[in-house]
Amino acid sequence: MTTTTTPSTGHTSPVSLFKNPIRAIWNVHGENVPTLWWPSCDLDPSQTRTVLLMIPGNPGLIDYYTPFLQTVHDTCQGKLDIFGASHLGHSSGSHVADPSRLFTLQEQVDSKIAIFDALTEKFPKGTRFVLAGHSMGSWLALKVLKARPNHGIERVFELFPTIHKIADTPNGRNMKNLFKPSVRTMVGGVVSTLRFIFSAPPVLRSIVSLATGQDAEMAQVTSQKLLHGHVVRNCLFLAGQEMEQITEMDTALIHEHSGKFVFYYGKTDEWSPIENYYEMQDKFPKVKSILCEQGMVHAFVLGHGEAMGVLVGGWINEL
């Protein structure tokens, strides 16, 4: 594991020691994975450790979740460890061995299970694990729970979940042509060309901010980490696989672990429409399902990360 930055230590309060996460590249089963880690500030050995594993949606760049996870850490007064990991192929840099490689949905599943296994080995027996999945990351979180049902997973937060029938959603129907091999190749080429033309980072960041309305921090992630030809091709390839493979809801798994879940839906979500919320209530009356009343959108990390962080942090504090 190669650490690329270190936490800030400019304040005396233990909680404020980690206003910036530790960034590292983990080698998991031979694949290099960018990760973020907010260490716990509570090192009392008599206390049960709590570890949150964040599984992103698509694009699977964990950097988009920094404000959200920082808020979770602050809301919990630093009394838990938070880990987040990018998807395979959804990052650029010297850690990428083969930029031409496209990673399958199953490889993303295997990667998240392996990362969870690494965490169970790192922390002592009896540690409480919490999974948080966003969008298709919610489906990946279900896969981790299914593979490791007896490994201390106490809660699974499913945020704007896309866990079934993705191709039949409004966005799935409208965007399906974007995931065709010829189109994703063309889009990747256009992105590479734009990066070449606007090679100066501040220029590209400004263009992204103007075009998308993203704030400076999120525009920095988009311009410097997402907009690479091979990253975009992997995002589109994975999305195509989601359309084909995320079809049937794993009702048996949800029934079996009904007390562990919190499902959080949006009112205007076109990846996980409001009908999914009502379906969840009807099929799983014992599962805690919530309909957002704060006007959050599916991509909550772009503008609502802190608000969601307060909610998730509050749920963790109730454990």
UniProtKB/TrEMBL annotation:
Keyword Hydrolase assigned: yes
Keywords: Hydrolase, Lipid droplet
GO CC annotation, single: lipid droplet
Primary subcellular site in the record, as a coarse category: other
Pfam families listed in its UniProt record: LIDHydrolase
InterPro entries with a match to the protein in the record: AB_hydrolase_fold, LDAH
Keyword Hydrolase (UniProt): yes
Entry's Gene Ontology molecular function annotations: lipase activity
BP term (GO), one: lipid storage
Subcellular location: Lipid droplet
PANTHER family for this protein: LIPASE, LIPID DROPLET-ASSOCIATED HYDROLASE
Homology family: Belongs to the AB hydrolase superfamily. LDAH family.
The protein's name: Lipid droplet-associated hydrolase
